[in-house]
Amino acid sequence: MGFRAWIRRPGVLAVGGSAIGALLLALPATGLLTGRWDVPLTYSGDGLSIAAHVKTVMETGWYEWQPALGAPAGQNYHDYATGDDLNYVVILLLGLVLPTWGAVMNAFFLIGFPLAAAAMTWFGRRIGLGAWLAGALGVVYAIAPYHFQRAEGHLLLGWYWVVPLGLVVVWRVLVGEPLWGARPGAPRGLGHALGRTGSTIAILGLTASISAYYALFIAILGVCAAIGALLVRRRWRAFWGAVGAGAVIVVVIALNMLPDWIDALLRGSNPGALVRTPVESEVYALKLVQLLLPSPLHRFGPFQQLRELYDAHYPLPSESPALGLIGAAGLVALIVVVALVLVRATAGRAPGTARWRALVGLAFLTFVALLFSWVGGVATLVGFVTQVVRGWNRMSIVIAALALAAIGLLVGAVVERATRHRTAVVRAGTGAVVGLLLIRLAYWDQGPASDPAARAATVASFDSDAAFAAELEARLPPGAAVFQLPYLDFPESPPVGGAHDADQLRIYLHSTGLRFSGAGIRGREEIDRLGEIAALPPAALAREASALGFVGVAVDRVGDPGGELEAGLEGLLGAPTIVAPDGRFAYFPFG
Predict the structure, then answer these.
(1) Read out DSSP for 486-525?
(2) From 45-49, 373-377, 472-476, the region with the lowest mean pLDDT
(3) For the segment 156-205, what is each residue's pLDDT rounded down to a tens digit?
(4) Phi, psi (5° rounding) for residue 585?
(5) E strand intervals along 371-530
(6) Residues 6+ apart with CB under 8 A from 36
(7) What are phi and psi of 344, to 5 degrees?
(8) Among the four 149, 167, 405, 441, which has the fewest Cβ within 10 Å?
(9) What is the pLDDT of residues 91-117, one digit of tens each?
(10) Distance between CA 173 and CA 222 in Å, rounded?
């Protein structure tokens, strides 16, 4: 097949059209169509930690070592092991063409929208959706509430486009298709690379390198699909093929984690860097009602207030997972399908059409996803064994894909019945209209409410921090080290006053030639020593910090609401010589 013929295929057009549509909707929804690209959409909390990674990649080529943080020892992120390394390869490439870390964050976030739409469209086509419905639901999936809630605070989770790709592999297992094999007619030596073997390895390798969370979720569904297929079809070859797919995920994650493990062997492990408890597997699980309620970012005031009321007064709000109206309808439909399957089984009636069998398959996978991720589910049992995985509410984006696929099958059946005696043009036009209506409903329901005041506050805070850092660099010699107060363990420690652990990164993010004591990974003697120094009286603090090479102290006044830290330093060193335009930071030189 020639390129022109291939690109005109309905499935290819649907994938490309959905990607373009998602991008066109994402630009105004995020505010990036007219806003400043150098300022990230999220400039607080985990967004600052992600920003520091992005800046470190742009400065050093990778994210795991930053000498400008945790001074004088440096920040070694091998102690906080992660395996989502392909994201940082993309960030590195974006940093070669974009001038600032803020622009890279915004671009990375935005790219996730067309990728999610395209991947979901492919999954929809794979389970039997028509081109128009598959493309429309691809757009709906790309602008899921999950995407806007994660935003740039959980930047890497926004690349959930690998979830529908992984679901294609799971679907192949469920329906009994092979995962491994050569492409018929392909040149010798390339058959496996161009066939199912190559696509299975590529999909699972991408998934495991983009997100260990999503890889785990796909592995869970794949294992359960393999067991189900084995019980129904009793084909051990297919079962072991699925086991091989799981092994690919394990191997790829291990390869991504290998540098962290080697570092632990060379320097010794650091168990204090990541401290979590089994109970967090329920704190960060999900509840069915959360998925059905509106998003906390909903643009319709009463819906937003309803969700705020629930999250404020009911226990375990988790990370406020939500599916949106269309996804919630699909989830309810799949629950009904489970009930109907049980009724039919009791009555001895077997399912008939391919559409029904697809709905049953989606219902099965959704049931497994809920069983693992809801409060008190299998995730709690997993939490007894390991606390590395705790954010089980993130399974909601997997459930969203399954629920939207179900809606596609049901709406497709309705459209097909309504137009079965019409011409092909009428059928295509009806499908297009229905798809556009779904997208319009989703954009109203799932797109976040505009908040110009909040964005203006973000920009003002960003500019103030930049001005403070610029003044520091103008007055201090290159490479000078600044001690930061209050001291906060990093990462994941309780706030001090109104300051959070990642707030220690604010000044560094705007500096190119200074070093800072904050944000070293806790658990190492040389990092924990900085906390001990921070707890000393002002005179002793100045003496010990000076001995380590620090030339002054920067106080985050938000973390010193009573002014005790600043008052003690003023009594010893005099008034601050540099104050941020918004008054948040104050700098005291030692001499």
Answers:
(1) S---BSS---BTTB-GGGGGTTGGG-SS-EESTTPBTTSH
(2) 373-377
(3) 999 999 999 999 999 999 988 899 988 887 776 787 788 889 999 999 99
(4) -110, 145
(5) 481-485, 515-516
(6) 459
(7) -65, -40
(8) 441
(9) 999 999 999 999 999 999 999 999 999
(10) 7
